[in-house]
Fold this protein.
Amino acid sequence: MSFEFTRRDFIKLLGAGTATGLAGCATDPAPPAKPVGTVIVIGGGYGGATAAKYIRMWSGGRIQVFLVERNATFVSCPLSNLVLGGSMNIEALTMGYQNLRAYGVQVIRDEVTTINVDKKRVVLKRVEDLPYDRLVVAPGIDFMFNEVAGLDAKAQETILHAWKAGPQTVALRKQLEAMPDGGTYLLSIPKAPYRCPPGPYERACQVASYFKQAKPRSKVLILDGNEDIVSKKGLFLAAWDQLYKGIIEYRPNQEVKQVDAASGTVRTEFDNFKGSVINILPPMRAGDIAQQAKLITANNRWCGVDWQTTQSVAVPGIYVIGDATLSAPAMPKSGSMANNQAKIAASAICAEMLGQPLNPQPQIVNTCYSYVSATEAVHVASVHRWDADKKTLITVPGSGGVSAQRTEIEKQFADAWAKNIWADTLG
């Protein structure tokens, strides 16, 4: 059950002017620390929830933290493709925010409609406006539906993206179950960058795995807007050839320009294709609130940040993390990255607000697993560190790499990774 913060709770807490209502871990006998300021975190995903938790931890409870999240629960995008393959259900990926309370995080189920940068306040739909000293914006991605002609609100009722785990994931699975054997599942991939580079290719594997067992005459057609597979190419090609030969058809340089929901047709620059189930991933950009606050600085899509701190290059005092950011070189948009970026932000905010030295060389790690079947997985990993000369995070030479091949052990590692990052993010 999630904790919902009411308007009355908010007024009571601000009126107290102390950290009494924001005590740290309930088992800690130490008296509440004197507050030094307030941080508001917008978005309770891998980035936002982690930032809220670690700011409380690393400040010793001296910084008040409000986490504003519109949804009642956290639903993990990593592993959600397994729901489409049938080896996992959405409930296993759904968790509450209640454990963050043990760290003194005040979780508000609401939606930020406006960030007033001049007054340092956020405007909410349901409760009183919140003042802040520092703001963490972790809005994830929103979609550029207008880039695909015909993908209007009516078409979106049947042509799903399912790229935000939750109800659409379940709905897409039901579409696959209802599809007759011999039908075609059409998956459209936008040009990079987009959330989770290997995710669409993993999705193709999972759907093909389901078809292999339940609908052996059905096909998976991938229309990729990119020139080639953008992540783990050799590993995916091997899986498609050895596990799903004759099921998966891959077509590069096929950016979808138009859809016709009524006829089940999609059009690229030169060709038309039909699908029994159409799954369009539209081009993506930083979440709407980042756009409203004028945090977007690159290509009308992404938020530029100082990667030593994650502070916005457009608005001082606001830190942007996760998929909404303009990535550093070779940095993917992933749950692992969002979790690690949150720690850069938390460290920088604590240092600034508590008068402590800034970490001169933050270093973070990305690990991304892909499930190529119900029992096997592969991974890619990389290490990124701050380079003072280039003033960005760079990939550490020789770090990381990809799996030699798909294995069942990798699948066990992937399961363990998920459990560990959920615990680290949500308490």
